[in-house]
Automatic annotation (TrEMBL):
GO biological process: proteolysis
Name recorded for this polypeptide: AAA+ ATPase domain-containing protein
Gene Ontology, cellular component aspect: chloroplast thylakoid membrane
Record-linked InterPro entries: AAA+_ATPase, ATPase_AAA_core, P-loop_NTPase, Peptidase_M41, Peptidase_M41-like
Cited function: Probable ATP-dependent zinc metallopeptidase.
Recorded GO MF terms: ATP binding; ATP hydrolysis activity; ATP-dependent peptidase activity; metalloendopeptidase activity
Membrane-crossing residue ranges in chain numbering: 374-393
Length: 998
């Protein structure tokens, strides 16, 4: 140190030529600062930056020497006193004891010297520390006083002191700030754990906040508004040998740093069921106690109790006490302690009853008013009090026996149920007998149930499949709204409407929609209300009464469902051969086109088979308005899907769905089935999410519990909906457009998916050899569909080992054209392509599978090819020789009579078409064998190929698709001789089909 200072002074002397006095002054100042900052803390084992030495070094040295002497004297005197006072307890012993770490951090010495005088212990601090402690304390007080005096007297010295102090603080702060940085990913300021003890020792920390659940500490520095993140785990690893974070925490407490330990968040999943129950019980108990002792509840409780006590006292004084005195004799009451003595020789002790009676009478007299208003309120309060008390006692009578473990005597519940059933059947028998005697009026009961439809299942404007019948429906609505409009124009208003359609096409919904649009009531009549009764002609009388009542209540709609059940063709079926049915139809005809005025009365009926209704009812002027409800077209399906989505789906998800694509894949669905598609789409998208089942079930249980408490109007408010969105986002249930689109892509068109072989159980070993035949089957079908021009579209093919329906699947959608909404028309070209397509998998197995390894995967397609070829020749006249003769029709009573040779000729033509298609399929696949092999390899590798990937493979490997015009006749060059004996299975099947048709 001296050499360094000497070198520095020499350099300054050589450079600046200072005087000897200046050099000596600087050396003394440097030595003084060195003693103040280094030697003094080492000697005294403490550091106090607020205290500095005197001006002169000599005074500082004298002070230290004097303090040491005084401390030594005090130590000697102290030890002598201890020995003199404790020697009487026994022999003297000396030993050392380590001070606990937390005491050392608070400023106590690390080693204590203990004396033992027999069984008496005396703890003495470390000798060196004890020698210096009193002197250091005294010198520190004197140094502070001298420092304050020097700062006040010498302004230059004070200014220099403050400058040095600020520089030291800034230097310490800069050292700490070099260990801090900003974390962009976490969006927070962080501090190196190494810098924390230094900041504590330099008293740079203003406050600290500890989060034990996150194992972090947030430190705030003086003069800074930011909090710095400190990792407690990393601090423990670095300072494990020095007490870790616990030692730092004790040191911060000893330094007086404000330290906050925030409450920990304990997840319920870490607690067992008993701990969760105790936690909920404790929280509930604290909440109830807090609510019970709250000021508002205390006020309400006291007021309610006072009101109840007042009304109880009034009732007891006015009613109960006089009633008891009237019923119970006086001697008995005195013996029970319920009456005061009236004679001198009588004595009775003070009982609770008498105290209660006295207090009640005093309370009653203090509040009683002699006016009619007080007595009126007394009667009202007494009635309410009695009603509440009666129901409470009734409830307790029913519940207390169950709580005690036994209940009231009950009969066997099965016996009571049997008695109720017997009574019900007896009631039905008695009612039937009574109605037969009195005469039951079915028409009156039907009109008693007449209703006005305000909210139909589907509004008339929302009906998608009635656009072509709008004019007729508008006429019906106009007739009901203004019955005289048609008569003024000279036209006849519609009297009967037949709604024809399959099950589920919306016949009943259309009738209710018309009634709601016209704003007229509907009378629903069932078959049993018009059936024959006790006498002949009762059904006709019921029809006559039905229309007569309807004319009195016009405008009205008479709605009959399944009209063909009781308005069938007369004499054709068993139930229509009766005399009552003839009278029923005749009376119905009279009511529809008779001379009576039918304005405002419309008979609306539904049926699935128009041919089963008597033709007389369908003639003009009767039920001539027929509304045919067909399966909806693609545009109508799209409209139905959008309307159903508004009712069932989230409004934010409706625009995410390509409804046109969904409508294309729901070709064969009916309107009642289309309503379920949007909800199924949303559910399938949710099932594709990866969710925490335990967390989801926990939230669902809370939702179910709260659903009974939260009213519907509150759920529809914006804050609650925002909370719902937050919970959906938190649970990972937010659906995107990609989620819904993936579900739509995987939709299977109804009736347009073909599977391979069915297994009773999935194969155990899903190897390449097991997959090969199924891959060849799927590849042959898909490639043949790609090669045929203007044919069906291949969506995707896949292999699925866990499927119960089959492990080789192809998804093919019929191509759309302007002529048909459901797919291609059965034109000759399309059937020929279909015939060739049926041989795709069969020819592929012949080309790629080893000899003898062919399987029966293609058996169903070969049967379909046989059926198509037979139908083309026999029903459509599309044979190979272009003969237009048709031998079988679908609605003919019988078939043309053909001889044996002619049947052989037809079989030969069918076989010719069959073989032409097989040759064409073989030719196409042989030309594109590399493409077929590549599709099989890709399918074996990935087990799933889309239509786009198949098209890329076809283009990449030079596939040669067939071109239009497509025909099978040009591929046949050899004429088969007529009369040939057919021995194979195909000809035998054709002959069998011809014999069955004949």
């Amino acid at each position: 140190m001296r050499w360094r200072y000497h070198k520095e002074v020499s350099w300054r002397t050589s450079s600046s030529k200072l005087s000897r006095y200046d050099i000596q002054k600087e050396l003394e100042t440097a030595q003084k600062e060195y003693w103040e900052q280094t030697l003094l803390p080492k000697v005294l084992e403490a550091e106090d930056p607020e205290i500095f030495s005197d001006n002169s070094t000599q005074t500082f040295t004298e002070n230290i020497r004097q303090v040491l002497k005084e401390s030594e004297k005090m130590q000697i005197s102290f030890e002598a006193d201890i020995k003199r006072q404790l020697k009487k307890f026994g022999d003297e012993k000396h030993f050392l004891v380590n001070t606990p770490a937390e005491e050392v951090l608070k400023g106590f010495p690390d080693v204590e010297l203990k004396w033992m005088f027999g069984q008496k212990e005396v703890a003495v601090p470390k000798a060196a520390s004890l020698h210096l402690f009193h002197g250091w304390k005294k010198w520190r007080e004197e140094a502070k006083a001298n420092l304050k005096r020097d700062l006040l007297e010498n302004k230059d010295y004070g200014r220099d002191y403050m400058t040095r102090r600020q520089e030291r603080i800034l230097l310490d702060r800069e050292r700490v700030m070099t260990k801090t940085w900003y974390n962009d990913d976490r969006n927070r300021w962080e501090m190196d754990p190494v810098a924390v003890p230094y900041a504590v020792s330099k008293k740079l920390i203003e406050s600290a906040r500890i989060r034990h659940d996150w194992a972090v500490m947030y430190v705030a520095l003086k003069g800074d508004d930011k909090e710095y993140y400190v990792d407690i785990k990393e601090f423990d690893l670095l300072f494990e040998d020095f007490g870790g974070f616990d030692g730092l925490y004790m040191r911060m407490l000893a330094s007086g740093i404000p330290t906050i330990v925030q409450l920990m968040w304990i997840p319920l999943s870490d607690l067992d069921i008993r701990q969760q129950f105790l936690l909920m019980a404790q929280l509930s108990r604290e909440c109830l106690f807090g609510l019970w002792n709250s000021s508002i509840f205390s006020y309400v409780r006291q007021r309610a109790f006072s009101k109840i006590k007042n009304i109880t006292d009034d009732i007891m004084v006015v009613i109960v006490f006089p009633l008891l005195e009237l019923i119970i004799p006086k001697q008995v009451r005195m013996s029970l302690g319920m009456a005061w003595p009236e004679e001198a020789y009588q004595a009775v002790g003070s009982t609770w009853y008498l105290k209660w009676q006295s207090e009640a009478e005093i309370n009653y007299k203090a509040r009683k008013r002699d006016n009619i208003q007080w007595y009126l309120w007394f009667l009202i309060r007494s009635a309410i009090y009695g009603f509440v008390l009666f129901n409470v006692l009734r409830y307790l009578k029913r519940k207390i026996p169950r709580l005690l473990g036994y209940g009231p005597f009950r009969r066997d519940p099965n016996l009571r149920k049997l008695q109720r059933v017997k009574a019900y059947f007896q009631f039905k028998i008695n009612r039937r007998i009574r109605r037969k005697k009195e005469g039951f009026d079915p028409i009156r009961s039907a009109f008693d149930q007449m209703k006005r439809v305000k909210n139909p299942p589907i509004r008339l404007n929302d009906f998608a499949s009635v656009d072509s019948m709008r004019e007729e429906i508008n006429d019906i609505v106009t007739c009901l709204q203004n019955p005289t409009a048609f008569k003024e124009k000279g036209a006849r208003a519609p009297r009967g409407v037949l709604i024809v359609g399959e099950r589920g096409t919306g016949k009943t919904s259309l009738a209710l929609a018309i009634a709601a649009e016209a704003k007229v009531p509907v009378v629903e009549v069932k078959a049993q209300q018009l059936e024959a009764g006790l006498w002949v002609g009762q059904s006709a009388s019921n029809v006559r009464e039905l229309f007569q009542t309807a004319r009195d209540l016009a405008p009205v709609i008479i709605f009959v469902e399944d009209f063909d059940l009781f308005a069938g063709v007369r004499g054709q079926f068993i139930h229509t051969k009766k005399q009552d049915h003839e009278a029923f139809i005749n009376q119905l005809l009279v009511e529809l086109d008779g001379f009576e005025n039918q304005d405002g009365v419309v008979l609306m009926a539904t049926t699935r088979n128009l041919k089963q209704i008597d033709e007389a009812l369908q003639r003009p002027g009767r039920m001539d308005r027929v509304l045919h409800l067909q399966r909806p077209t693609q545009l109508e399906r799209e409209k139905i899907l959008r309307i159903a989505a508004k009712e069932t789906m989230d409004s934010e998800l409706i625009d995410f769905v390509d409804w046109k694509q969904v409508a294309e894949k729901t070709t064969l669905l009916r309107p009642i089935e289309l309503k379920l598609v949007p909800l199924a789409l949303e559910g399938s998208a949710f099932r594709s999410k990866f969710l925490d089942t335990d967390e989801l079930m926990c939230y669902c249980s809370w939702f179910v519990t709260l659903s009974y408490c939260i009213p519907t109007w509150l759920r529809r408010t914006k804050p609650v909906q925002n909370i719902n969105r937050f919970l959906v986002n938190h649970l990972g249930l937010v659906l995107t457009k990609e989620d819904l689109q993936s579900v739509i892509d995987l939709m299977e068109p109804y009736g347009q998916i073909s599977n391979g072989i069915e297994f009773l159980s999935p194969p155990i070993d899903w190897s390449r050899d097991a997959k090969l035949p199924h891959a060849v089957w799927a590849a042959g079908r898909s490639l043949m569909a790609l090669l045929l021009p203007n044919f069906d579209v291949v969506d995707n093919i896949w292999l699925e080992p866990t499927a119960w329906e089959g492990i080789g699947c192809t998804k093919i959608t019929k191509a759309k054209n302007e002529g048909s909404v459901n797919g291609n028309l059965e034109s000759r070209s399309y059937l020929e392509k279909k015939l060739v397509f049926c041989f795709g998998s069969y020819v592929a197995s012949q080309l790629l599978l080893p000899f003898g390894e062919e399987n029966f995967l293609s058996s169903s397609e070969l049967k379909q090819a046989q059926e198509i070829a037979t139908r083309m020749v026999i029903q459509y006249g599309w044979g190979p020789d272009d003969s237009p003769a048709i031998y079988v029709t679908s609605n003919a009573v019988g078939t043309l009579s053909m001889g044996k040779n002619h049947e052989f000729e037809m079989a030969a033509r069918v076989e010719k078409m069959y073989n032409l298609a097989y040759d064409k399929a073989k030719e196409l696949l042989q030309k594109n064998r590399p493409v077929l092999e590549q599709i099989v390899e890709q399918l074996l590798m990935f087990e799933n190929l889309t239509g786009h990937e198949l098209a890329n493979i076809l283009e990449k490997h030079g596939g040669i698709p067939e071109q239009e015009p497509f025909s099978l006749s040009e591929n046949y060059h050899k004429e088969l001789p007529l009369g040939i004996s057919l021995q194979n299975t195909e000809n035998a099947a054709v002959i069998e089909l011809l014999d069955a048709a004949a």
